[in-house]
Specification:
The chain is mostly helical. The chain contains 6 helices and no strands. The protein has one domain.
Amino acid sequence: MPALPDASKPLSILASGLSSTPWAATVVLSVIVGAAGIIHYASPQRLTGVLVVAMADVKKTYLEAVENGALCASDAPIAEVFSNLQLEVSTIRQASLLSSLSRYAMLCDVLKGRTFTILRCLHEVHELGTHIEILKESQLREIASRRFATQTAPSTTSVVWF
């Protein structure tokens, strides 16, 4: 009967060579996945979509505030900020659509810092929306306090007998 060679020796050599490979591969794969996630999150195309949705929400809030009387349509500072933001969002959206036609242009957008421009504009849109919401809530509180005052005010025509 032929003798089988000792199989544990080649396996130990193979195992010692591969023992560091899974960790290195895991680290490299984790870095690649993390970088891809960051690139996707910071992508001007994705952030532009978020910006457009946020602007639509602020526009809805603005129109509700005007309709409810919490904000006058002629309220100059808020109307001016709103108009400027609409123009800026439109400009950003147009540039984003143009750059989406080419991978090179998308990469140039990221390297030029368009992500930070979009994030700044997104912050301003959220800030305006919050300001309008505060105005709406203060108007609702004012209406409620007036209603409470008229309900609790004593009637001058009623006579109270003790």
